[in-house]
Amino acid sequence: MFKLKFAIVFLILVLGIKQTYGQHSDCNTALFFEDSIGELIAPKGYGKKQEIKGYSIKNEYFFTREHNTVWCVIAFTQDANFRFELKPQLPNDDFDFTIIKYYGESTCDSIQNKLCTPIRSNLSKRAPEQGSITGLKKGYDNNYAAAGPNPSFSAPLDVKKGDSILIIIDSPYGSKGGFSVKNNSDYYPEIIPEEIAEPVIPETKRVTMVIQDEQGNVIPDPSIYIKSLGKIHRDNKQIDENGNVYSEFFKPNVEQLVIASQQGYLYQKFNFSWDGENDSTVYLQLTPLLPGTKLQLENILFLANSSQIATKSKDELEDLLVFLKNNPTMELEIGGHVHGPGKRNKKKYKKLSEERASAIYMYAISNGIDASKLTYKGYGNSEMIYKQAKNESQISANRRVEFTITKVK
What we know:
This protein is of the alpha+beta class. The chain starts with 30 loop residues before the first strand and ends with a strand. The chain has helices at 105-112, 314-326, 347-366, 392-398, and strands at residues 31-34, 69-75, 79-82, 84-88, 96-101, 120-122, 134-136, 153-154, 157-159, 164-170, 179-183, 186-188, 207-212, 223-228, 231-234, 238-239, 245-246, 256-261, 268-272, 280-285, 294-296, 331-337, 374-378, 400-407.
């Protein structure tokens, strides 16, 4: 492939620029660029909402929370090896960044709900003696760098024509000066074939579901369940040439419950509606099963002061059975919980919670699940979701079971 290298160098010195509240500091207000970063505004604050928060200082993907952030999207019009340098004007200023594949507005929801994994990041400690410069650079093979004395740069990123990435830059202590961005990418022009085939235009509009793992790889042959109008359609899917899933049972102007699953992954469910006027693409990310992962099913509920399962739990229990049968080698613990006012975990609380866990255990094994793969335990009121429940909905949520994966083979 003929290689065309651009030494595109641009400096954006941001000195004392005042940022209006929320300007480019939220995902839905991100700046959009083609192929390289253009003019950026020095981050000040985190916009109207803090979309990144609650992460451990030891994690290598995200800042512990947003401090002073600017968000931008880069859409690539040609293949490239993407590299850049971010240089503070003042060497004592500290800038961190994280990069995520961008699939449109659904990416913003995934970030806020902690459902996606960055493809690059650098949260390392500032190095004033070296100018505290960070970015993506040749010669580095680490995709991530956690907080602390780690490499100031991360590895370059290969991108394809049509890819888009989201870059979030954060200044944890505030920026006293500005910063500059230098683009060092190599770009590879598209080889245009002599004959271009006529595009295939689908006769009818359809919904396509792109189901991926945490690295953005398409998960082959997933299961798709669609429920609407009181009927559930299981595995009514078709696979296109790219491995993406579509189904004839996506009905326009009807809210439908969609469940996506695959062996070795936690399933994901959501409500979906579509006007049917245009093709629609839904991007889903499934999380791999790992020991210690908790699966909380919100609609497995119990009657007050009873281990009797509420009637409206029927659909959720059926979904649980499908999940267990799809992962026959997995082992998990069923944990029962109660709504028990007071700080003391009374004996009756523990007894009722164990009876609730046992009820789900018996339901599972009576429907063909291997009993050796399941254990159950009552936690009483020791792990209530709402310790000071204020309404019936919160009280009902405390009466629940949780499933903790104990072993994955």
